[in-house]
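Exam revision sheet. Question 4 asks you to relate a sequence to its structure. Input first:
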Amino acid sequence: MTEHWLPEILRSPLAAFIGEECTVTLVDQLNIFEPKCLRFALSKGLGLGIVLGGCVVKLPQLFKILKSKSVAGISLSSYVLEVFANIITIAYNFRKGYDFTTYGEALFIGVQNYVITLLILLMTGRASLGTVTGAFLVVFTYAMFSDTLVNSALLSALYGLTIPLVVSSRIPQIYTIHKNKYTGQLSAFAVFNYFFGTAARLYTTLVQVDDSLVLIGVVLATVANGVLAAQMLYYWNAPAPKDKYRLDSKKNE
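Answer key, C-alpha cells:
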C-alpha cells in the first residue's frame, strides 16, 4: 500500500477532484510526468479555472453598460441567441452527467447574459418586452431540465442546434462592428476572455468528454470568438461615430 505523505486534510479534496488513482500516481508516488494522469489533472485544473473565469467574464461588460448608461455597439440578437444556447448547453451536459468543470462556465455566463439582455431591452425603451422575455426564459429553462417536457432525444437534437446557434449568436455582433467600424461599449475583457476560454475548453473537452457534438460546438465557438477578438484588436483605437452611436431600438436589433 502506498504511503500518503500529504496530510489527509489536503489529500482528500485533491483525490475528490482528480480521482484516487491519479492522486496515488501524481502525489503519493510523485510520478508527476505520468502522461495519462498528468493530462487529466491539467484538464481538471484548466476546467476549474475556466469555470471560475466564467463567474466574472461578463461583469466588465455589465459595469460598462451601467456606467455609460448606453448599449452602443452591443447586439441584442447576439445576447438573446447566446442565452438560449447557454440554457441548452447546461441542461444537455447536466443530464448527460458530465463533470461540472467541463461546462460550468455556461451557467455563470448564462446568468450574466440574461441580465445584460434585460438591460439592453430596458435601455432601448422596451421594458415590457423585457418582462415577457425574462419570464419566457425561466419557463424555457425549466423545460430543458424536465425529462417529461423534453426527453433525451429531443434535448440532444436541441443541443445539436446550439452548434450553429452559438456561431449565429456571434454573427450579429461581428456584423455590427464591421458595419460601424467601432466596438462601442463592447468589453475587450469579455471578448478576449471568451476567446481564450473557449480555446482552453478545446483541451478539456478532448481529454474529459467523449462527445463529438460537444467538441464540434467548442471548435466553432472558438473560431467565432477568435473573429470577434481580431475585430477588437483591429478597431481598438477607432473613433466613435459623430452621433456617439447611442443606439435606438432599431439599430440595436
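Marking note for examiners. Residues 56-242 form one domain.
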